[in-house]
């Protein structure tokens, strides 16, 4: 696998489209912090690390409102072949503020709103709505 972050996001999107209650994803600290940002933004339920034998997985609960998924779509911006770095003044407002952008900064992974308030730029990972 060349891009574990894209794999993480696509697994979540596909689980929502298949109407699953939970999704299991191979564990890493970056995926855990990315899940924490999505939980704080209201797109995911809770997440917890499960250990089976030698393998760790991240089990994430998906949220639905009136049988409609909270996460409707996402756009992966940075890719392994092309990283997109932006200053805090150019952090995009997704769907006029209805969505969320996710950035990897020097202070960790955070939502675009938090990065804008802290005046920190970084790598734009994705836009979610």
Describe this structure in words.
The chain has 129 residues and is of the alpha+beta class. The chain has a single domain, classed as Dna Ligase, domain 1 (2-Layer Sandwich), CATH 3.30.1490.10. Helices cover 26% and strands 37% of the residues. The chain contains 3 helices and 10 strands. It has helices at residues 4-17, 29-41, 112-118; strands at residues 22-26, 44-52, 55-62, 64-65, 68-69, 74-76, 85-86, 100-105, 108-111, 122-128. Strands 6, 7, 8, 9 and 10 form a 5-stranded antiparallel sheet that branches. It has a 3-stranded antiparallel sheet with strand order 1-3-2. Strands 4-5 form a two-stranded antiparallel sheet. A hairpin with a 2-residue loop joins strand 8 (100-105) and strand 9 (108-111). The model has no long low-confidence stretch (mean pLDDT 96).
Give the terminus-to-terminus CA distance.
Answer: 26 Å
Helix percentage range: 25-40%
Structural class: alpha+beta
Identify the CATH architecture. 2-Layer Sandwich
CATH fold label: Dna Ligase, domain 1
**Low-pLDDT residue intervals, each spanning 5 or more residues:** none
* Beta-strand residue percentage: 35-45%
CATH class: Alpha Beta
Rg value: 14 Å
Sheet bearing the most strands, described? Answer: 5 strands, antiparallel
How many strands in all? Answer: 10
Shape: globular
